Amino acid sequence: MGIKIAPSILSARFDRLGEQVMEAVHAGADMLHIDVMDGHFVPNVTMGPALVKSIRPLTKVPFDAHLMVTHPQQFVKAFADAGADDLTVHVESDHDVRATFKLIRDHGVAPGLVLNPATPFERAEPFLADADLLLVMTVQPGFSGQAFRADVVPKIRDARTYIDRERLETELQVDGGIKVDTAPIVAEAGADILVSGSGIFPDRIAENLKAIRVAAEKAARKRGGHP
Ligand code: DX5
Ligand code: ZN
Fold first, then answer.
1. DSSP class of residue 162?
2. Domains of the chain (ranges plus CATH)?
3. What value does the mean pLDDT take over residues 117-133?
4. 6 — pLDDT class (breaks 50, 70, 90)
5. Would you say the CB of residue 136 lies under 6 angstroms from ligand 1?
6. Which residues pair with 90 in a beta bridge?
């Protein structure tokens, strides 16, 4: 299976969100990344379940909701009901990760775990067998358009090595500063899913998405991890 691309709608034009979502879908987006911020876990406020619900009828492409919130357990039901297909929660949030994962699965949604740039890979290890996704942040969460942090690349490699060695099904996702120039770096390090906001939206959406995919797949082939 090839690399998956998850456009982050945080960088879309909200006055034309539906159109921009459909452009990304027609360009072959594998999932849509939805950045949820509560103004507490991160210093920004973005979108909630009402927005997810309003764009849900537009497409069957999976909705990947990234919860940058202090109490993710309080939002599971609302995002599940709104139509999220997976919910990724930060290990740094204030919750019992195992209990939140169970709650997410009980709502018929796939759970994933997120690591901030400063959080070591070891913090994820105890939960990975239960996680459908591991999201490694390559920027400090809060805003789109930040510069890619190359210092996180060794953690992506460590995660890839661990997932393969333990034969886990967990997909490895990377988020933050992914554009056509940085996509090959994370693909080569072993990422399965690349999130990109300002690398894809708001203009030339199809062109940007395809360029990122081509660059990433070329690097993944070089690594030999993906056919
Ligand atoms: C950052 C968000 C990212 C962001 C990515 O807090 O989690 O998903 O929207 O945007 P770019 O690709 O512009 O860094
Ligand atoms: Zn995100």
1. H
2. 4-223 (3.20.20.70)
3. 98
4. very high
5. no
6. 114
